[in-house]
Protein 1
Amino acid sequence: MSHRKLVGRSAYGLPAVILLAVATSGHTFAASSQQQGQNAPLVIESEGSFAFAGKVETDATGQSRHCDHGYADFSLPVGARKVPIVMWHSTSVKTWTSDPPFLGGHQNFQDIFLRRKWPVYIIDLPRQGRANYGCFALDYVSNWPQVGRDQRTFAGAVAWRLGTWVPPGPPTFFNPSQFPDDPTGALLDQTLRARYPDNEQLPDAFPLEADSVSKLLEQIGASILFTHSGSGYPGWLTAIKSPKVLSVVSFEPGYLWPEGEVPPGQTRVVPLADFLKLTKIPIEIIIGDRYPAASLAIAKAFVDTVNKHGGNAKLIYLPDLGMFGNSHIMMMEKNNVQVADVVSQFLNENGLDKH
Amino acid sequence: MSHRKLVGRSAYGLPAVILLAVATSGHTFAASSQQQGQNAPLVIESEGSFAFAGKVETDATGQSRHCDHGYADFSLPVGARKVPIVMWHSTSVKTWTSDPPFLGGHQNFQDIFLRRKWPVYIIDLPRQGRANYGCFALDYVSNWPQVGRDQRTFAGAVAWRLGTWVPPGPPTFFNPSQFPDDPTGALLDQTLRARYPDNEQLPDAFPLEADSVSKLLEQIGASILFTHSGSGYPGWLTAIKSPKVLSVVSFEPGYLWPEGEVPPGQTRVVPLADFLKLTKIPIEIIIGDRYPAASLAIAKAFVDTVNKHGGNAKLIYLPDLGMFGNSHIMMMEKNNVQVADVVSQFLNENGLDKH
């Protein structure tokens, strides 16, 4: 029986080999401890992709087109927890996905949370990425990647805060930095390509996104939203619109405010009755190192406003936990397993991680 | 020892439980027979995504942008075969990926070949899908989804040949049809959304694609290309350009021809010396049911031309194998496991499926 020591015990006290055999007949089971490990194989029950929401437009003769849908990748691990996580990027799904072995194999949130047995959905919103078959001709001409985008991404205080970059000098990372070790510069090259042309120039972009994700949750069931940066604001709109948003974990998002309680400089306002819906769900905001003080104050004001109205919002400033050197893309950085631990603890405290 | 009977034996005669433990220390192993089954869990060593190829454009001051890269999803199964498969779509990666459980869970080629232990890469080419951060402002305005696209996709003889659709009447599938059972119409809705705005209107599109995939193969190693329809032609260009294309399996592609041997109506021509590179690799062309006779004659002419010059090209017309009712998207249809069997046999016959 020495092999039992190698694989440990499942939650049911059965050796994993028996449970794998059960899984092949269509049942799920609690994973062995080794399968939950950082380098254990991913054991996936099903995966794939689908379009969600979207319109069908028809002319007078009945000729039609399907457009303005979103696109979701799904991965459902064997032995999954009940509530899925929907990962909603700001610039590209690459912020959630792992690196290939030839680039060091650094693991990102899709796989970290899959290994922790969460069903994971990664989405492109309408008119973005794999969902760029829109009903409108986006003005990509004036919204195209411009020279200088690299420097603004790398160094901007309101961008990714990786370091300083003043051409013709090279990019210089902050010290300390949690950006993964990158001796050849290949990972920085990847990071600067982790971007799509933006879809936000049309006035209906944010309501369209909130409506689309609400429809997605009608299909996949009540879920936790992970939002980031530019997806923060439409994420709050979705939580207001859909009772199927059970929680929002947001990484350095933008905010919205109830009428009459808007901090100076903030422009996104909703009726108090809408804002109060955000007080019904657990919210966690995660902020990295070197976040501008004024922005940190706004984050604190948002959490205070939610809680003042009876909510359950929590602000995590990573340096307060002894985590230094994180940029705006902390879900892609060296210590992202520890960042994920912070999130996992929050989900556990709020009873959202049940099998 | 009864559990050993449940899991079968690996190729090394060890129970799978031992091999799983080995895998956690970083080694790979041959899968147990049950893991290769159609409904067994996918056991993935690593997965994720990355940008490939691409340009960096810099102005006189040193300000820069990264653009015109491709985007690849990778999935490396535990116990993988040596040579990866690169799946290169024509309209959307959805043609390769499986459906979610709430849409019936139909499995497509990504998972069928992963379960058969192939490393699988699925790519978006520059200026498409998740790689639409191009160096040029694509003219999406004139290349936008037009009303009537649905009918042309569904019914066109040079499109997907799913059936007939004359508005205001409903779409009617051919009989027989291999399109998956779709009582609610949800799968047809998915299929009509499996499309991006095209990237082919700029004159450098095809050479750019061939160059990009050649660079991808420099990173991931010599590979088999699966191409489909519109990706057929740039796929041949890639096989001419890169010695790392070990084989091409192409589903109803377009073709190119050596100078002086161009059939009437065909326009894509390369020097004979280039064309001869296609004679150095095994090629399989797969054609579905109801393919127009003139198009089938062109496919046969291509295979004959390759073979006349000493090549190893094979034409599979699925009805000749007793497989009726397949459309242009046979990799997504009910009998796609049988279509995959045809491909697997070809790869085996050519010694490409070694572990």
Note: The two ends of chain A are 29 Å apart (CA to CA).
Protein 2
Amino acid sequence: MLTPQNEDYPRWYQDVVAKAELADNGPVRGTMVIRPYAYAMWERMQAEVDARIKATGARNAYFPLFIPESYLRREAEHVEGFSPELAVVTHGGGKELDEPVVVRPTSETVINSYFAKWVQSYRDLPLLINQWANVVRWELRPRLFLRTSEFLWQEGHTAHATAADAAAYAERILRDVYEDFMVNVLAIPVLTGRKTARERFAGAVNTLTCEGMMGDGKALQLGTSHELGQNFARAFDITFSDEDGGQSHVWQTSWGASTRMLGGLIMAHGDDAGLRLPPQLAPIQVVVLLVRAEGGAGERAAGLVAELTAAGVRAELDDRVDVSFGRRSVDWELKGVPVRVEVGPRDLAKGSVTLVRRDTGDKTGIPAGEVAPRVTAALTEAQAALLDGARRRQEERTVDVSTVEEATEAARSGFARLSWSAVGEEGETRLAEQGITVRCLRRADGSLPVTGDEADLVAVVGRAY
Amino acid sequence: MLTPQNEDYPRWYQDVVAKAELADNGPVRGTMVIRPYAYAMWERMQAEVDARIKATGARNAYFPLFIPESYLRREAEHVEGFSPELAVVTHGGGKELDEPVVVRPTSETVINSYFAKWVQSYRDLPLLINQWANVVRWELRPRLFLRTSEFLWQEGHTAHATAADAAAYAERILRDVYEDFMVNVLAIPVLTGRKTARERFAGAVNTLTCEGMMGDGKALQLGTSHELGQNFARAFDITFSDEDGGQSHVWQTSWGASTRMLGGLIMAHGDDAGLRLPPQLAPIQVVVLLVRAEGGAGERAAGLVAELTAAGVRAELDDRVDVSFGRRSVDWELKGVPVRVEVGPRDLAKGSVTLVRRDTGDKTGIPAGEVAPRVTAALTEAQAALLDGARRRQEERTVDVSTVEEATEAARSGFARLSWSAVGEEGETRLAEQGITVRCLRRADGSLPVTGDEADLVAVVGRAY
């Protein structure tokens, strides 16, 4: 049904996206339609990420889609980075516009023009704003979820009184929002680290990243948190009066995570039978599958769904007994629902039902009276097992090397770890010629390098989406 | 501080929007920045409306922002209606596009091109889809929240096997989603009815509407639900095979409500001191206002916030004792927080605190040990009182008349009710010359006319935003 992963991984990905009814290509090149099942996953991602963002003290707001072209030009690196990807509106309301407007590729420029108005005094700081929005970056080689001309994301923008406060907040977002969500909800054991200057966000002085390893050993950047220094503060003149009455420019951060995470979710856990969703994220955690309706099985199956729902489990009933049981099972596997409970008259007569784990394929007969606790336990185990499996693969496919040549070889199947001093900007250029990038720089103990810390860094390199 | 309503109502509106920090004008004409306090209200609107939409069986999805120009032309009335308001992207990725794309003014055309693919058989029906998105309609006379070139909304799109099923669903959305939400959460006693042909959505065969009366007696259309007949089904060739194997076009609905509801919320309840938010919607339902920190009042105030939060109340502490008590009170009034609890050492010494209702201004001393139940009761009362007040105003300002001339006179201060047969299309044109519109057609008993029912209808006419 699906192309096997080891035969053609990109084709497997396309097959899963189409057959699990996750997304379609839009009519305009590079755009996408997110279908209800994938959108339900996005809603769960939004809820989990939003709660973590709010816990850091940030508040949501909404800024316009359209940005005057002149705004982008104010920060030199920023406009240079985004110019090739812009969509430009030249006509509005039946007339040619005096000044063309761009469709936001990201909102630093428009948001900072308001920060300049809203920030007056140190009492207004820190100013912590987040928005959920669509952005447009014209994409020549689109892939659903991974690279699309329009995507959905959250983008946070903050202003602080000191560089240290901004740096601490950027790290807090990386750790308490992105890493925590990705590890504990998505079950993806992301690597955190700093981007090299070459890979940095256009306009940032430091970019922190969460990198996941996909099923084919390639990296996917899943979320980034930037220190912007005072670059935008100078470009947009965002100043505040400090406690002594002096005027200073603010220090800033910005950070984002997008619908690209849906691509990461598919590729981090999927297998030849389809998706494998971590229970914390799954819109449907359990499907109760009615085998045949006889012998009171129909009533019992419906009752189990009610029982599971009451126990706080996202459960759904599949009582389409006119469709073959095998076809329905394959479809729920394809959709990655973590646990199936099969209810049939024969088992029921013996007081039992069958519990099937999607992640392992294990089938267990369990007493019909213990479904809720057994399902809850299976969900907890499946969540941990998916994280463990992804962690094991990442460890197996990460090798320590000494030279750029060895790293190039190792990046065929996974990540290579080597001293950043053995790479440097010159080595980074050579890697790039082979389609390999430095995914992040870390300290030898795996911790995040502090700003300005350049000695003894380890580079993790690989191919990436 | 605010311009009084009876001096200059539009100016009062602008003042509230600016001073309560609800929104700013965007840099591109007609666009807006929704600031955190107003966005928090929008998030509550989204949560309440979304839950009601899902309860009708619809699922959320996401369709692209960009629509090929050619798609809009497929439905003749639709393109005619929207052409003057379109924003057009002519350049993408540094090049001129082969075919210009429009920024969606609404998504019928793009969504229906997918419905044509997804709907094959009667088993696929009804197909019930909703999306939360931004849309763009170029606006020459923008007003924050009420008319903006970009706004946020939800738009639902459905396909059904029969005209009757589509009609019933369109009415269900009007009643169970919009009217229920507007009456019970927003506390706005909306009139429901049918639009005249002149006021109908471009491409619809029937438009149902919820109309609210604002503080100045003018109407605001707060949500609409359309029967599209088979117009888009024919334009996009959406057919299904029925149980007998025959092919038929589907019957459709679409329906939407937007950030315009924020404008309605301001104008339905606001007074000369600012917003008055219904507790069901208010992001902050209660502020505990510390008068002075002495005598354990600080600890007690913080404790009360914890107590209220534990009781399920959205409570916030204001312990900024370095800002004058008067100024803080005025600010919370401006922000429309439904209940204030004032905690000061003098009252506390007598075991009491002061409860202040925003809607009535009533101040009551209550025992400090009974804050949670008293606040909960006050919130319930305030919710009912705001709805009652709005209903009373609407009744007082709606008069029964017999002629278009009398209706024109009555519409100076509110709504006029008269027989639709005394108006007709000719009368509607005369009213339009005076800036007056038929807001909706209803049956004499106030109920919704069924499709095709033209006899004995009552027209409600008024000025509108």
Note: Chain B touches chain A through 54 residues (CB under 8 Å).
